[in-house]
Specification:
Blueprint: H1 5-12, H2 18-44, H3 57-60, H4 64-78, H5 95-111
Helix pairs in contact: 1-2, 2-4, 2-5
């Protein structure tokens, strides 16, 4: 697990890069959690694929039913409901596009 003490210290002391570093750490965590969900679905389907953040999810073997399971998995993993407007093919193209959508939702929840 990452040591967040350095990040928190940088933020607490007003470091100009502290907020950016913390955001990058959050985004990396989001990416890793989504990647784990995708890999779990692939394993359930007995598909051994090399998945990268930019890999198209349909190209690595996810079906439309798998995408539904991924959507439900993301909602459970991050404890929020994906707004209907965000359930688009564009947001479910890759780990990276999903990460952007999830990070946007998490930031919106924090701001509210």
């Amino acid at each position: 697990m990452a040591d967040f003490g350095v990040v928190d210290s940088a933020v607490a002391h007003g470091s100009p890069t502290g907020g950016k570093l913390k955001m990058q750490t959050l985004d990396t965590d989001v990416q890793n959690r989504i990647l784990a969900l995708v890999k779990a679905i692939l394993e359930q389907n007995a598909i051994a694929a090399n998945v990268h953040p930019e890999s198209r999810l349909v190209d690595v073997g996810l079906t439309s039913m798998d995408m539904v399971n991924l959507m439900l998995g993301v909602e459970a993993e991050f404890d929020f409901t994906i707004p209907q407007a965000e359930i688009t093919p564009e947001n479910f193209q890759s780990i990276k596009t999903l990460e952007r959508m999830v990070a946007g939702q998490l930031h919106a929840e924090k701001a509210a």
